[in-house]
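Quick check before the chapter quiz. The format below is the same one you will see on the exam, so make sure you can read both the input and the output lines.
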Amino acid sequence: MERSWSYTPQAAWASLFARGILGLLFFMAGWFKVFTLGPVGHAQRFFIQDFAESWIPLWLLWTLGVSIPFVELAGGALLLVGFQVRRALVGLGFLLLIVTYGHLLLQPLFDITVHILPRAILLLFLLVIPAESHRWSIDGLIRERRGALSK
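Here is the expected output.
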């Protein structure tokens, strides 16, 4: 028996708070990496320095190291305003997979509970709730306008 989760005001609040927290976590990390550390500095410090002797090709280390700050910044911003929420979550989910793998490659028993797990829990929660739960968002406004126009 399949159950569907219908929209409730509590789900809208939960979405707003989870999007806000997760959006801030990624946006502020991206802001620091883009505007303080710099994308090249981020790549050198967290990718080249740590993984240059690994199996990962140098071109991939540079690509990931320079692009991840922008993915965090943009994904966090999209979550904060609630635009293209599902796409932002999928992009940030792939980012979490990459970061998790990197940490585990350096330290196989890395403790994910401090940095990765809280973000993953919020991300997974936001992915499984119905899109209608993102009521207080740009996506929600677009959905309401489309619904009003179709009536």
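If your answer matched, good. The CA atoms of residues 75 and 91 lie 7 Å apart.
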